[in-house]
Amino acid sequence: MSFNIGWKDILDGVCKWRIWYILGSGDIRRRYARTQLGQFWISLSVAISALIIGLVWTILWKANVSEFLPYIVVSLILWGFLSSCIIEATDTFISNKHFMLGQKLEPSVIISALIVRNLIFLLHNMVVIALVFAIFQISISWKILLFIPALFIMSLLMYFISFFLAIICVRFTDVKHLINSSIQLLFYITPVIWQPHFLSEKYQDYLLLNPLYWFMSILRDPLIGSEINIFPWLLTLGTLVLAIVAIPIFVGKYVRRLIFWI
Amino acid sequence: MAHIHLKNISLAYPVYSAENSSLRATIGSKLGGKIERNQTGTQVITALSNVSISFNSGDRIGIIGHNGAGKSTLLKVLAQIYYPQQGEVVIDGDVSCLVDITLGMDAEVSGLENIRLRGIFLGLTKKEIDGLIPSIVEFSELGDFIHMPVRTYSSGMYMRLAFAITTAIYPQILVMDEMIGAGDAAFLDKAIARVEDMIGQTEIMVVATHSNFIIRKFCNKVLWMEKGSVKRFGDVAQIIKEYELETGETLKT
């Protein structure tokens, strides 16, 4: 029963792609309406912070700039995608309240819009990656093609995770604050601005306990051309299967009630 | 043929934050729903209790009642925004809920672009919208302003555009909280004619209103809500008379 209601909401929501597309692209549209560079201002700030972190780290650890800086740029951009999907999920229903109360709109439409917006941001930021790769003359291998399935898998997974978190957060505001502070913590314990091999071998296995490491790994490894590690892929795919089965049931149980919580 | 059938529906708003017991003092007051606790101890405000009604094609229903009688909640049930906790809801036909006629519009982009945005929210495809654009632009009387960002419009112009788009399509079931309208006196007559035209094309129209004029002009049935239940449902003249007699109030003209 819940499973059917959940899938109905998701599928009906998918059919309203015109609505979630305009909702998701709204921010970008407004930015371009007022500024010449539009969204690229955001990319610029990502580039600057990556540059600074990259330089400081290079000096501190005497790392190789041409290897480390591209790594940082890619990492920060991908982390930005994952963490924004999670953080924005915590208040997406509240901030889109007037749409949900103004006409019949499946909650899944709001979640799709969130994913679309972050994907658009990510694609804009990819320009920075391309620039950095060009500057440092990074050689591109066939592995880069793996980024496409990786991004597809992650977008789908983030959709389900965001949906789940969004429902919980709209009912229990405390969880929202918990997530916002945890993300900061996770940023440090996930290899984003440091590389897995910085850890001594003894600790490297523990990295696999952190789902965000799997997600970062499958997205990042193809881009920076490092060796493809099969475990993060398997674990991410396993999570996706679990999400596809379990989250629609959860959604179905609460989706018709959540309008009363916002 | 569109039809609406509600059977024994009850709807209560859960209140999770307010543990304020002084709120309970309002129980029994004339305004608002009943404040109670459900089985799990959550405070709830009962907005609709045991409502059963059927609307059929050709019905133009005006909903009257005090503030908090459940009018807007009922409209949101009809629009399928709210699912009642109990009872059965059958709604056959596509519903357009015009609680906010500007829903989806964006002040930063041009009027033309806003026709597209609003059109999408009304469920139209790009092609359908393109077909409607000339008539919408003409009706809105915005002229060259249609190419300007909407933030440069006066609020009257903004509402006129929203109104022109929203009334350009004819849903099977039309749900409105207060009659939609726009503009200054000169525009008003034009607007009323357009709404009349729109309502004429829909199968079922439901409007919550405090206005006698609206009911007499547009409705052929009246639903009188009181404390979340249906008090009376039927003929316009009859029920307005009873309403005014019992409440000692006169509906606004």
Fraction of residues in H or I helices of chain B: 25-40%
Number of strands of chain A: 0
Summarize the amount of helix of chain A as a percent range.
over 70%
- Specify Rg of chain B, calculated over alpha carbons: 20 Å
**Tally of individual domains of chain A:** 1
Count of individual domains of chain B: 2
Overall geometry of chain A: globular
What is the terminal separation of chain A in angstroms? 24 Å
N to C succession of SSEs of chain A: HHHHHHHHHHHH
From N to C, what is the helix and strand string of chain B?
EEEEHEEHHHEHEHEEH
Low-confidence stretches of chain B: 18-28
Total strands of chain B: 10
Q: What is the number of helical segments of chain B per DSSP (H or I, 4+ residues)?
A: 7
Strand portion of chain B, in percent?
Answer: 25-35%
CATH architecture of the largest domain in chain B: 3-Layer(aba) Sandwich
The major β-sheet of chain A equals: none
Q: CATH superfamily of the largest domain in chain B, called what?
A: P-loop containing nucleotide triphosphate hydrolases
In terms of quaternary structure, the protein is heterodimer
Features:
heterodimer; A: 262 residues; mainly alpha; 77% helix; globular; B: 253 residues; alpha/beta; Rossmann fold; 2 domains; 6-stranded mixed β-sheet; 4-stranded antiparallel β-sheet; 7 helices; 10 strands
Structure description:
The complex is a heterodimer of chains A (262) and B (253). Chain A has 262 residues and is mainly alpha-helical. Chain A has one domain (2-260). Helices cover 77% and strands 0% of the residues of chain A. Chain A has twelve helices and no strands. Chain A has helices spanning 2-15, 17-34, 40-61, 65-89, 92-95, 97-102, 107-135, 147-171, 173-189, 201-204, 211-224, 230-254. In chain A, helix 1 (2-15) crosses helix 7 (107-135), helix 1 (2-15) crosses helix 12 and helix 7 (107-135) packs across helix 8 (147-171). In chain B, 32% of the residues lie in helices and 27% in strands. By secondary structure, chain B is α/β, with parallel strands linked by helices. In chain B, the strands form two sheets. In chain B, strands 6-7-8-4-9-10 form a six-stranded mixed sheet, sandwiched between helices. A four-stranded antiparallel sheet of chain B has the order 2-3-1-5, covered by helices on one side. Mean pLDDT of chain B is 88; it is low at 18-28. Chains A and B meet through helix 2 and helix 6 of A and strand 6 and helix 2 of B.
